[in-house]
Amino acid sequence: MLGAIAGDITDSAYEARPVQKTDFDLFPPGARFTDDTALTVAAADALLGDGDYAGAYRRHGRAFPNAGCSGSVFRWLLSVDTRSYNSWDNGAAMQVSTVGFPWTPSRSFWPRRPGAPR
């Protein structure tokens, strides 16, 4: 998740003017987090909290109204409708970075193989 957020901040400075080299500032002046970061944190909040994704997305999205939401996302954040707004957004790739948080070595997603070391 931290890597996704760092990438979002870096990309915010270069999205409108892509660089074609590997030697560039990771966090140049003007770089900032975007709505993708706010909604990634919202996904983690819902996943580790009560599971209310729509509520978490609205809380976090509304807290940062100037983070660069598209018009469709912003309208959804302000509406009472919880149905999908058919976004073409690529932020979902960031938001899934939170999915591993609930699983720890003591609470694994994968079943433990008999005889496997703990």
| Spatial extent as radius of gyration | 17 Å
What average pLDDT do the residues reach?
Answer: 83
Poorly predicted runs: none
The termini sit apart by 26 Å
Write the element-wise H/E pattern from the N-terminal end onward: HHHHH
Q: How would you classify the helix and strand content by structural class?
A: mainly alpha
Task: Describe, in plain words, how this protein is organized in 3D.
By secondary structure, the protein is an all-alpha fold. The chain has a domain at 2-14 and 33-98. It has five helices and no strands. The protein is flat. The two termini are 26 Å apart. The model has no long low-confidence stretch (mean pLDDT 83).
Offer a few descriptive terms.
118 residues, 5 helices, flat, single chain
Q: What secondary-structure arrangement, pairings included, does this model have?
A:
Elements: H1 2-14, H2 35-48, H3 53-63, H4 71-78, H5 92-95
Brief summary:
This protein is an all-alpha fold. The protein has helices spanning 2-14, 35-48, 53-63, 71-78, 92-95. Helix 3 (53-63) crosses helix 4 (71-78).
